[in-house]
Design goal:
By secondary structure, the protein is α+β, with helices and mostly antiparallel strands. The protein has helices at about 1-10, 75-85, and strands at about 15-20, 35-40, 45-50, 55-60, 65-75, 90-100, 100-110. The protein has a 3-stranded antiparallel beta sheet. The longest helix has 11 residues, at about 75-85. It starts with a helix and ends in a 30-residue tail after the last strand.
Length: about 140
Amino acid sequence: MQKGLEGERRSGRHVLFVYGSLLAGEANHAMLTGARFLGDATTAPAFELADLGPYPALVRGGATAVAGELYAVTAEHLRRLDAFEGHPHLYQRGGVQIEGGRSAQSYFMDPVRAQGYPRIASGRWRDRAVISRWSYST
């Protein structure tokens, strides 16, 4: 995959690491329509994954390797995603180290903003606990 990442960069595309609602099969994956899937990936163990309810936040400064996917995206994708992610106010886009020494762009949340939210210890968004808001009585 290393060769593929460098080829994407040379072609003017950006390599983006996604880890939550942008993953294939998740609610906001359509934002990546037209992007090229490069494969599954895991970050270096230097993060926390906060569970904000309908979506997660990648937070720097932990010891968790976060699982996700890599996509080759255009500058137009990044413009749309920056607006969608609230960059630079809610999330900030920046570099992330991927296992094996590779790098990509991703969206991070400031650790102060992510305080008080539960962490997903496995680093996998799809492992989050699903808690129903509805209570049923018999």
